[in-house]
Amino acid sequence: MASGGAAVASLWTEVNRCGQNGDFTRALKSVNKILQECKDDVTALQCKVVCLIQNSCFKEALNVISTHTKILGSDVIAFEKAYCEYRLNRVENALKTIESAAEQTDKLKELYGQVLYRLERYTECQAVYRDLIRNSQDDYEEERKTNLSAVMAAISTWEKATPDDLGLPETSYELCYNSACTLIGQGKLPEAMKKLREAEELCRLSLSEDSDMTEEDIDSELAVIHSQMAYIMQLQGRTDEALQLYNHVIKLKPTDVGLLAVTANNIITINKDQNVFDSKKKVKLTNAEGVEHKLAKKQIRAIEFNKALLAMYTNQADQCRKLSSSLQSQNPGHPRPVLIQVAQLCREKQHAKAIELLQRFSEQHPESASEIKLTMAQLYLTQGHVTKACDILRSVEEFKHKPGMVSALVTMYSHEEDVDSAIDVLSQAIQYNQAEQPGSSEHLSLIREAANFKLKYGRKKEAISDLEQLWKQNTNDIHTLAQLISAYSLVDQDKAKSLSKHLPSPESMSFNVDVDELENSHGATYVRKKAAKVTGENPPKEEGQGDVKKKTKKKKSKLPKNYDPKATPDPERWLPMRERTYYRGRKKGKKKEQVGKGTQGATSGAASDLDASKTASSPPTSPRPGSAAAAAAAPSSNVVPPRQQKPAASGATRKKPQQKKKKGGKGGW
Description:
Shape: elongated
Mean pLDDT: 80
Structural class: mainly alpha
Helix content: 55-70%
């Protein structure tokens, strides 16, 4: 027993030494030897759990805790159990373990804050970290402030709320980065970009002090800052610069799968329906293992939406429907999955099914009906059903009386020549603004547009009330007063006369206008020519003396070349030739030699040359063959009979002259 006790003591010494050196693998071996001697030793079991956690063996550590539940009570090992559950992404179980602990130690509170952050309960998480910073005095104060700034950034980004200014110092690049994220959530993009550049500089300074850090290691650490810079550029519309920076981050291959997934997703959103091959490669990075535990729920949902859209752009209809249906089951009240399904149906030219799907969703989820009804109206417009689109838009209570909606409705009703419905839309909008914000600029502009619309379509009687209301708001508005008098002139002339007294006198309406300067100004349709300067030779004109018009010289008419001034011109020269008395019609000339008649290759000229009767030396009659005359004439004749003629070489053949085409249409044989 004494030797056994000495061995255990030496083992504990070994455990202590390995723990101080950070060699938890050897420490675990020594602890296991101690447990062989003392199975129920609480301290040994605790040390074993710690060694397993330090070696990232979280499942084995939980097995040890669950196996020795009676010995290791919840108060003894609560932190270690909750931490193992947190690292195994069993966040809900970790929260229960922490809340069931009898004593809330500082380390449990630290873990509690991490768990609340993962569960996206940012308000409670903020309270936990503020309490820790206020009531703790140790070397981890800067890490707590960094975590608190991350919580503030999440509140600004995901909850769209303006967080309180806690006055956190920006002494590290992590604090500066979180401050930039908070500014992005508030929409202050230039200020956020400035903060990110400060964070980049601080990061380079802090990491360059470590001699073991290479330039590649520094770039990998800066990847998250560069990705956020690219996001700001994308929001500002500088997509080319953003895409270049995103691809630089991807090439670095950072170990953070969450960063890779977000960067790849943003590249896909820039590509849209272009560069689909690159998007299909990038989408694989969003499917890495453990991504769902690194990102917020809204980030994961946005990535899934983009996957469905990419499937639609790549004409994978079944895959698109599958992804959008899955998204709809996970987010039953969200309109975006339904809109993706509708877009896919529209690509397949199934507009009726698309409208039916939108109608069904708007009835089931009235809280999201506004966006859905706007899409329905757009589909009706693409099909040419303008009146149905107007009915849908008028049913959207949220936007019904907005100036933009009123303008769109009036334009569409005018296109359909439904003036009464357009006036009804304007009247309802005026009544709504009269009750909600009377006398506002929006209210008065609606009245003005209603009056102008009624006057445009000849509804002067209906425009009187609107014009009177406008004139009462501003009695110095002469234009409105003139319109009001014009409208009353058709209804009540006495009223028109009484109102005309308010018009200013002609003297007060006259303006000091230089007519000459106005006429000579740029853009005048008529410009008066200035009088020529009087030279010293010409005396000035007397008063009343009119301007003498210069006589224009007539050009001499050109006469024909064969013109004879002594001969009397033909009195019928102005009549067409066919209508003149001496016209006898065309003389029929000799027919031209017909081309192409006769034997193939023969010409009329050759035929005349071969006619012996036409030659001067030939006798009047041809001698008979075999006679002496024939024999005497044969050597003196140079004419070769046609059948004995040798064909000329192909290069020596003459081309036939091209016949000129007749004017006035195509000729035929």
